[in-house]
């Protein structure tokens, strides 16, 4: 049974890149924003891990991560945050909120794959 990865990002190029690269190893679902991702999960779709951008419309990464971590059903799903900001304060904030990792864009998809693999091990 393939592990399920949910990728949430408003940049179509990132969704396409990660879907293409990660689908060699995982069942990948992509969503353009946190609001749609949460609705999808509330319909009973539970990913094994979530990769989510921070800057998104409708519901940003802060709000999305807060919703995940405050939910009884979803709080144990590991979340990797993606950000265009290389900022220690931001990284600390998200790790404090419960993110398991923080990856700065642009990134190497192989590195992200290895981070996912290690979190799912």
UniProtKB/TrEMBL annotation:
Q: Does the keyword Cell division apply?
A: no
Q: Which Pfam families match?
A: Response_reg
Where are residues bearing 4-aspartylphosphate located in the sequence? 53
Q: Does the keyword Protease apply?
A: no
BP term (GO), one:
phosphorelay signal transduction system
Annotated Response regulatory domain residues: 4-120
Keywords, A to Z?
A: Phosphoprotein
This protein is called what? Response regulator receiver domain-containing protein
